[in-house]
Design goal:
By secondary structure, the chain is mostly helical. It has one domain. Helices cover 75% and strands 3% of the residues. It has a 3-stranded mixed beta sheet. Helix 2 crosses helix 13, helix 9 runs antiparallel to helix 14 and helix 13 runs parallel beside helix 15. It is globular, with a radius of gyration of 19 Å.
Length: 297
């Protein structure tokens, strides 16, 4: 089966977008998204500084290390969704729903993939080898963690869906409407996604490995999106991944304000990250395969 046949769902989805797929529109759209996100985030922080200066200061300093700061940080990703909605309306004469895909099918695929990943998680937990070999340190008290869980889940869903709407939605669709070659519409957004996760200040010598993991993740999510013709599967995989890394077990140096446990090493620890990333790569591939099976029609 050729890639053209595999990705027929996306081909049908982007067929109507070709009239506004000029490169200048995409470049202008990317600039408008960046400017809108910057302006909205600036407005949010200015408002917080006016109404709650102490809390605003904590958000700036905590780097997601407290429940409140991480909830705010994740929720501000809604600015990306709003920016994409504005951009596609002004420059491409379509609505945000066209970026996400047909709502009933997107929701169905989201739930199917989420269920498959939950089943996969149970299987991986039950089968040997037992345990992860990680030293886990309690982070949030279980009672507080449970009380915050509804807000935490909503915040993670906002964050992950926003990234998928931008990278696998807007950018991938507009490139696919202009260029038939998957090397363009799959790779370019994935490279940008990887660059967004290149954090040398926090990750030190591990920055390139984490960016490479993110780039591979982006490619796999691009594949799922093109197969399904909607963002449901990619959002589900991204949501499950970040639920695990932000709410269950997180690194101790950043973005750990809502997690139940933290691991015993930092993001810039080359030995620990070097041992653990291959496991993460393998888990990512297995999760992608499970998602592919879940959306087979």
């Amino acid at each position: 089966m050729t890639l053209r046949n595999v990705y027929q769902a996306q081909a049908r989805q982007v067929a109507a977008l070709r009239s506004t797929a000029q490169p200048w529109r995409l470049l202008a759209g990317a600039a408008l998204v960046l400017a809108t996100v910057f302006a909205l985030n600036l407005a949010i922080m200015q408002t917080l500084r006016s109404l709650a200066p102490g809390f605003a200061r904590d958000i700036a300093l905590a780097n997601g290390g407290t429940p409140g700061s991480l909830l705010v940080l994740l929720t501000t990703f809604a600015c990306i969704t709003l920016a994409v909605a504005l951009t596609v309306r002004l420059l491409h004469r379509r609505g945000l729903a066209s970026v996400i895909g047909p709502a009933p099918r997107a929701l169905r695929d989201f739930l199917r993939v989420l269920g498959a990943l939950a089943l996969l998680g149970v299987v991986l937990w039950v089968l040997p080898p037992w345990g992860t070999g990680l030293t886990l340190t309690p982070n949030l008290a279980p009672g507080l963690w449970l009380m915050l869980l509804p807000l935490s889940l909503a915040a993670v869903l906002i964050q992950t869906s926003a990234e998928e709407i931008l990278f696998r939605g807007y950018l991938q669709q507009q490139l696919a409407a202009r260029f038939a070659n998957p090397l363009i519409w799959m790779v370019l957004p994935s490279v940008l996604f990887a660059l967004g996760h290149y954090l040398p200040a926090q990750a030190g010598p591990n920055a390139w490995m984490i960016a490479a993991w993110s780039g591979m993740f982006g490619l796999l999510m691009a594949d799922l999106t093109a197969r399904a013709g909607n963002l449901g599967p990619a959002v589900a995989v991204h949501f499950a991944n970040n639920l695990s890394s932000l709410l269950i077990v997180s690194l101790p140096d950043a973005m750990n304000g809502l997690s139940l446990y933290t691991v015993g090493f930092r993001m810039d620890d080359p030995d620990a990250i070097g041992r653990w990333l291959p496991v993460e790569f393998a888990t990512m591939i297995v999760g992608w395969l499970a998602a592919r099976l879940a959306i087979r029609r």
